[in-house]
Amino acid sequence: MDEAKYGTRDRRGHWTPFDRLDYGPLFSWPTKPLAILKWMFGYPGYILPWNLLIALIAIAVWFLATPSLETMKTFEVGWVAFILARNLAMTFVFYGSIHFLLYIRRSQGTTFKYNPKWLDNDNPTFLFKSQTLDNMFWTLASGVPIWTAYEVLTMWVFANGYIPFLTFAANPVWFVVLMLIIPLFREFHFYLVHRLIHWPPLYRTVHHLHHRNVNAGPWSSISMHPVEHLLYFSGVLIHWIVLSHPIHAMFHLFHAGLAAVIGHFGFEKIVVGEDDAVDTHAFAHYLHHKYFEVNYADGSIPLDRWFGTFHDGSKEAEDAMNKRFMERAARARKAG
Question: Which intervals hold domain Fatty acid hydroxylase (predicted)?
Answer without folding.
Answer: 180-309
